[in-house]
Each structure stands twice: as structure tokens, then as C-alpha cells.
Design goal:
By secondary structure, the chain is an all-alpha fold. The protein is built from 5 helices and no strands. The relative contact order is 0.11.
């Protein structure tokens, strides 16, 4: 790699567009592969996409910190859908009530 191309790669590698695009492309490919396989449990899209992204990071020598920084937007958007908060009163899921229907604090 020449010095100019190494600088270009370094600049491109820190771009969020690259890592968000890679993540979405890997997931779409993994989804296609999963459907094509007839729903094989060995090809669950989330795991397959994660493996593809890890392979690209490893082959390109990109540290995880750069990838994590580039995909902060995805992490922010997916965070509420993947976190599970609990009700303080009884350990139940928000919106549900403990036995007896009363909760000392609102969920």
C-alpha cells in the first residue's frame, strides 16, 4: 500500500458511513442467506452478520474502537429495543402489575 492510499484508507476507515453501510449490508446478506437456506438455525441472520463484520474488521486490521465509534448511531437507535427495563415495585415488566394489582411506585 502506498502512503497516499494508506492515508485514504485511514480517513475512510473512520467514517461512520463505511461501518453503518457494512453492518447493514452484512445483515441484508445474512437475511438473504438464511431465507435461501430454508431457515437453517446455523444461519440466523444476526449471528451470521456479526461473523461477517468481525471477519471484515479482522482482515482489514481495524480496531473495534473505530467500528464502535462509527456505529454509535445504530447503537443509539437499537438500544431501546434491546434493553429490558424492570418495574421497581415487583420486578415485573413495565405496564404489567404484580399479584393483587397494586404497585407502590408507578412502572
Amino acid at each position: 500500500m502506498t502512503a497516499a492510499s494508506a492515508q485514504d484508507w485511514a480517513r475512510f476507515a473512520t467514517s461512520p458511513l463505511l461501518w453503518i453501510g457494512l453492518t447493514l449490508a452484512a445483515y441484508l446478506f445474512a437475511q438473504w442467506l438464511y431465507r435461501r437456506s430454508g431457515g437453517s438455525p446455523l444461519l440466523i441472520p444476526v449471528f451470521t452478520a456479526a461473523a461477517l463484520v468481525v471477519d471484515v474488521l479482522w482482515l482489514s486490521g481495524t480496531p473495534n474502537q473505530i467500528y464502535a465509534h462509527g456505529t454509535q448511531l445504530l447503537t443509539f437507535l437499537v438500544g431501546p429495543a434491546t434493553s429490558r427495563s424492570r418495574c421497581r415495585c415487583s420486578g415485573t415488566v413495565p405496564g404489567s402489575r404484580p399479584p393483587g394489582g397494586r404497585c407502590a411506585s408507578p412502572c
